[in-house]
Design brief:
heterodimer, A: 305 residues, alpha+beta, four-stranded mixed beta sheet, 13 helices, 14 strands, 41% helix, globular, disordered C terminus, B: 94 residues, mainly alpha
């Protein structure tokens, strides 16, 4: 079954894509995952789920290959997430970071102009695309790799700052119902007008270590794991040539074999907790009771000054 | 008043500390508290980042957010023995 306008014969004219497929299909996975992988790499979809949304402003064999690279990589690193995307027909994405999470949970995904006109401060990468004309649409894509690329921050400062990646997923129906916006750009984009409301957000993709926490913040929202792409072992250039980073490939194989990765946490938390002073904390505890709790709690600070 | 009232920016900083705390801390913060912090943080104008390998005290975070986070730790994470030790420490630090 073909899900794409581009046949496999067209794509395998790219020898580096053939090499990539061979690498992926040689990785040690179970039979079912292997079948899904073949379907994604050779057909561009799986059991009715198509990687190509049909809404992108640009399409060509290279873009189709990019779709397949990203989704096959996701399938291997987070197979449950792949299954959920297929089941819910989610194939359109928007990449951002954790700084945007509270706003998105409360207000939905809004265009830059909508945020500005509603006096809501922009705290995401949309800030970097602010032009004199502003930006009156929301940029989505059906190339997961591109969305995930936007979800990583300040690549030249990756070792310094952490704010975890957040990718929003939606469906063709929800994007279409929101209102499509014609985008003229060099990257494969899907523009939608103004606001993707909270109910139009089908899922949130966050690192595995954040799934439980974000699920509790975002009640009734599908939250899925998409582990950080810092160790992505392939790269595709503007000509469609795919390069493989052998060191990262070996690391990825070790991860598939079940080697656990450490989750970054802040050191020195207990030292900080112990270092506070009672005169400040008394007021803080009262404020927490009023703002966050509403219960009567005995904090044990009655006798302190 | 020796403290700053919980506001949008503090809520966002506290949420960020929770994001990068270990699971024991995260699991013990009640859902209601998380959600209320989220709603407050939604109106924050700040971008908040954590620097790898720096301790919490060394991070570019307000002392108010450290106070609020510490209070949540005391209320929900510390067992009774640790609570006593934390309380004694706070009083002694005054």
């Amino acid at each position: 079954m073909e899900y794409s306008d581009y046949s496999l014969n067209q794509l395998i004219k790219n020898n580096t894509y053939v090499n990539f497929c061979n690498i992926m299909l040689s990785l040690p996975v179970d039979t079912e995952t292997h079948e899904k992988l073949e379907s994604i790499l050779y057909n561009g979809g799986y059991k009715g789920y198509s990687l190509n949304s049909g809404l992108s402003n640009r399409d060509n064999p290279k873009i189709e290959i990019e779709r397949r690279l990203g989704m096959s990589y996701l399938l291997l690193r987070n197979p449950d997430t792949f299954d959920a995307l297929v089941e819910n027909n989610i194939n359109i994405f928007h990449g951002t970071n954790a700084n945007a999470l509270p706003k998105i949970l409360v207000y939905g995904l809004r265009s830059l102009n909508n945020l500005i006109s509603n006096n809501i401060e922009v705290t995401t990468g949309e800030k970097s695309t602010r032009t004199k004309k502003g930006r009156s649409f929301i940029s989505l894509t059906d190339v997961l790799d591109i969305a995930e690329g936007y979800s990583t921050l300040y690549p030249d400062q990756k070792n310094l700052d952490l704010s975890f990646s957040l990718v929003i997923g939606t469906t063709v129906d929800d994007a279409t119902n929101t209102g499509l916006f014609r985008v003229d750009s060099a990257v494969p984009e899907i523009g939608i007008r103004d606001t993707l409301p909270e109910e139009g957000i089908s899922c949130l993709l966050v690192p595995s270590s954040k799934v439980d926490l974000v699920r509790r913040m975002a009640s009734n929202k599908l939250v899925l794991a998409a582990d950080d792409i810092e160790d992505r072992f392939y790269y595709i250039d503007e000509f469609g040539t795919i390069s493989i980073n052998e060191e990262r490939l070996e690391k990825f194989k070790r991860r598939l074999a079940g080697e656990e990765e450490l989750t970054p946490t802040i050191p020195g938390i207990k030292q900080t907790v112990f270092s506070r002073i009672a005169s400040r904390i008394k007021g803080v505890l009262t404020d927490i009771k009023d703002k966050l709790l509403g219960d009567d709690l005995d904090y044990g600070l009655h006798n302190s000054k | 008043m020796d403290y700053t009232i919980l506001n949008n920016d503090i809520a966002k900083e506290v949420l960020t500390i929770i994001y990068y705390s270990d699971k024991e801390i995260q699991d013990n913060i009640p859902d209601d508290v998380l959600k209320k912090l989220t709603i407050l943080a939604a109106d924050s104008n700040k971008d908040v980042y954590i620097e790898k390998d720096k301790s919490l005290n060394e991070q570019n975070l307000s002392k108010e957010s450290l106070d609020y986070f510490s209070a949540l730790y005391y209320l929900y994470v510390a067992n009774s023995e640790e609570k006593d030790k934390i309380l004694s420490s706070w009083i002694a630090n005054d």
